[in-house]
Design a protein that fits this description.
Length: 341
């Protein structure tokens, strides 16, 4: 507790080294780290969180870099969490991101942190949520979360944001299909990046078509909260007016073109949320996602400890399952029943 509160005090005082240390401890699952998060919790909830997601190489980091600059020009402080599922590293910046964002590295108003995926029990969303909490407590006005939009984890990470920007690129017909499959529903704003390339018009048209289809078939305007499916589904959380239509903005991140418009679209979504009570709904959805992530980690941790104590080591149990000597469903049921007992 004392460790937790003293490092928390230092984070609240804006000590960058304390924040970096806490983030590392969280990564390493140091016991004191969670106490610090708890101590910080009452001082969080101020930051505006913007998620950027999209296919690998779509230009998310390049856009993040531009968004940092725009927000800094408006006098806002910025925190960045770049999630890279392909990186085997944790606890340090990924080289590519560091290179692209290095202009901001010396700016005390900017704090950038990369996160690899190391198979945390609570998933990527738990680790990302922790980092967002620390940045929020540090007093960052805006937090940018970059995730590769490929899997469920990344979609859950998007649930940690107030505004989700889905980054699409031209010339990949299948890409729009991929977006359709899962990411379309979470988009508050679309950026068609690499608009300097052939096919940008078509990508914009495809996206417009998909949005149009959703409007007519599903009969519901695009709304991140209304579409909070997965475990977040709760019709009561939809924005009261529910009329937000995700704008589509063309950008050329490498030339800083369209990025001002992208910022304007994000600001418009923010204004929409704040005017209609949607900010509260989104905060509730975010809190729910973060809470479920913590809960899942606790429960899985507890279950695995029980398993290892009573049924043998996880690897040994897995071998029996692989050899078809044990039934994973029955085992899980049995374990769940024992935990309830
Ligand atoms: N032509 C063109 N190239 C771009 C644009 N934006 C980014 N790039 C290039 O695309 C490549 C990938 O950009 P990143 O910003 O790293 O993309 P990313 O989505 O962060 O990539 P991952 O994090 O690896 O998924 C880099 O070589 C960029 O210079 C653009 O608007 N036009
Ligand atoms: Mg990147």
């Amino acid at each position: 507790m004392t460790t937790g509160s003293s490092i928390a005090d230092r984070v609240l005082a804006g000590e960058v080294r304390a924040a970096a240390r806490l983030m590392r401890d969280l990564d390493d699952r140091q016991p004191g780290a969670e106490a610090a998060l708890r101590a910080l919790f009452p001082r969080t909830g101020r930051a505006y969180v913007i998620g950027l997601t999209g296919a690998p190489g779509a230009g998310k980091s390049s856009l993040t870099d531009r968004l940092i600059a725009h927000h800094r020009a408006q006098g806002r402080t910025v925190g960045v969490v770049a999630v890279d599922p392909t990186s085997p590293f944790t606890g340090g910046a990924i080289l590519g991101d560091r290179i692209r964002m290095q202009d901001h590295a010396l700016d005390p108003g900017v704090f950038i942190r990369s996160l690899g995926t190391r198979g945390h029990l609570g998933g990527l969303s738990r680790s990302t949520a922790d980092l967002v909490q620390v940045l929020d407590a540090m007093g960052k006005d805006v937090i940018l979360v970059e995730t590769v939009g490929v899997g469920q984890d990344e979609i859950e990470v998007a649930n940690l944001a107030h505004t989700v920007v889905v980054v699409a690129v031209p010339g990949m017909g299948d890409d729009v299909q991929a977006i359709k499959a899962g990411v379309l529903e979470i988009a508050d704003v679309f950026a068609v990046n690499k608009a300097d390339r052939e096919g940008a018009d078509r990508t914009v048209r495809d996206l417009q078509g998909m949005l149009e289809l959703r409007r007519t078939v599903i009969g519901r305007p695009g709304d991140h909260d209304a579409a909070h499916h997965f475990e977040l589904a709760d019709p009561g959380l939809a924005a009261p007016d529910g009329t937000w239509e995700p704008p589509i903005v063309r950008t050329v991140a490498v030339r800083d073109e369209g990025t001002r418009e992208l910022v304007a679209a994000i600001d418009a979504h923010r204004a929409h949320l704040e005017a209609g009570g949607g900010r509260r709904a989104r905060d509730t959805a975010r809190a729910r996602a973060a809470f479920v992530a913590v809960l899942r980690e606790r429960l899985v941790q507890g279950a695995l400890e029980r398993l290892e104590a009573e049924m043998g080591r996880l690897d040994a149990v897995a071998e029996r399952i692989a050899a078809r000597e044990a039934d994973p469903y029955a085992l899980a049921d049995e374990l769940a029943a024992r935990l309830r007992a």
